[in-house]
Amino acid sequence: MTDALLLTFVFLVAGVISVPIASRLGLGSVLGYLLAGVIISPLLAILSVDIHSIQHFAELGVVLMLFIVGLELNPKKLWDLKSKLIGLGGGQVALTALCVMGLGVLLDQEWRTSLAIGLVLALSSTAIVIQTLTEKGLMKSDGGQSSFAVLLAQDIVVIPMLAFIPLLATPELIDAVSHTAKALHDTTSTDNVSLLSGLEAWQTTLVTFGAIAIVVLGGSFLVTPIFRFIAVAELRELFTAAALMFVIGTTLLMSLVGLSPALGTFLAGVVLANSPYRHELESDIAPFKGLLLGLFFMTVGAGINFTLLFHHFFSILGLTVGLILVKATTLLLLGWFFNIRGSNKWLLALGLAQAGNLGLFWCLLPSVMP
Predict the structure, then answer these.
(1) In angstroms, what CA-CA distances link 112 with 23, 119, 126, 196?
(2) Cα–Cα distance between 353 and 156 in angstroms, integer?
(3) How far apart are CA 241 and CA 52, in angstroms?
(4) Exposed e or buried b per residue across 291-306, where buried means at least 16 C-beta atoms within 10 angstroms of its C-beta
(5) Mean pLDDT score of the chain, rounded to an integer?
(6) Cα(147)–Cα(151) distance, rounded to whole angstroms?
(7) Residues in Cβ contact with 246 at an 8 Å cutoff, skipping those fewer than 6 apart
(8) What percent of the chain has pLDDT over 90?
(9) From CA 93, how far away is CA 150, in angstroms rounded?
(10) Contact 33, 18 (CB under 8 A)
(11) Tens of pLDDT, residues 108-126
């Protein structure tokens, strides 16, 4: 109990101090949380805190954020984004992946490895971009809506990407990953539960579409009667509990069938966009979203490996700048093609020029190589 309270106090103090300072300097809350995590990382190391376990829990903040975004987008508005979703978002992923693949081949990487790297680095950080756009009041602008369409397309593309990337693995990498997976299995007491274990491909497809149908139908026909029933008690905390129950249940279902929890809860939010309880859902979940997102960003900052960074500083700096240039150039060209002009075009290009969280998985691959 004391350890949990101490850890909670450390994170709260770090956020309360760092974020106002960063905001006053015009840096934004995201960078403030990241710096807070960097500052407290030595203390967390002394306390032997498992940062990655906390980060997995804090990722619920990203899920809640996508749910709230979905609540503000009814199906008609989402349909209006279809051209940007398919053309701009799909084009960005494809062109960036091919460009990075070409650069990888020029750097003497095997083409399959280069393509896998390109697919991973084509993605951007949904949490950072949406949080920044919302905080700056740019979410409703043409550049903000285009950025959101690209991020949503990236979240959708992750599903087939996770199925395709293993086909690109070299025999050496397959052996290394298999060896690491066996070691993890031997050293952990619990395994992730999946509804897809042992199913054929067509059965997996049916389960996946069934899960999506449950989310859509449940949001359309069950949530409103449930909230109407809860309203009889006239207790605000029951509304909050029911809202969290719905979001966490959706997240759990998506995880069990191997889909993106963020994408699933976003879909649930879109389904509930026309619900009479939309504003109650949004107001009840917003505080949890803010706190968990802040915790997530702090764990990202605390998890930075500065030894690795300083040891390969110039290589990392060069590759980072190169990736930003490739993605920004690609987005500028696509922005011009889709008639995004002026500052909105630069907002789209610079806002999405970084790599996303999925890149962390690729960064871990060298550590599993024999």
Answers:
(1) 43, 11, 26, 27
(2) 19
(3) 26
(4) bbbbbbbbbbbbbeee
(5) 81
(6) 6
(7) 219, 223, 268
(8) 11
(9) 9
(10) yes
(11) 888 888 888 888 888 888 8
Examine residue 21 and state whether it is found in any structural domain, yes or no: no
Nearest to 152 by CA among 129, 127, 126, 128: 126
The count of C-alpha atoms lying within 13 angstroms of the C-alpha of 118, restricted to the half-sphere facing its C-beta, is: 24
Q: What is the mean pLDDT of each run of 10 residues along the chain (370 residues)?
A: 83 90 86 91 86 85 86 78 86 92 88 86 86 84 88 82 70 51 44 61 76 84 84 81 87 82 83 82 85 89 86 88 92 90 89 75 42
CA distance 96 to 119: 8
Give whole-number Cα distances, 331 to 96, 100, 150, 225, 346, in Å: 9, 14, 10, 44, 9
Domain that holds residue 294: 50-368
User: pLDDT tens digits for 151-192?
Assistant: 888 888 877 776 677 677 666 555 544 444 444 344 444 445
Number of domains in the chain: 1
Query: For the whole prediction, is pTM greater than 0.85?
Result: no
The token pair at 93 is 């992923």
8, amino acid identity: T
Residue 24 inside a domain? The answer is no
Q: What is the C-alpha separation between 334 and 345, in angstroms, rounded?
A: 9
Do the domain assignments include residue 45?
Answer: no
C-alpha angle 188/194/198, rounded to 5°? 105
In a domain, 232, yes or no: yes
Residue 314: partners with Cβ closer than 8 Å, 6 or more residues away: none
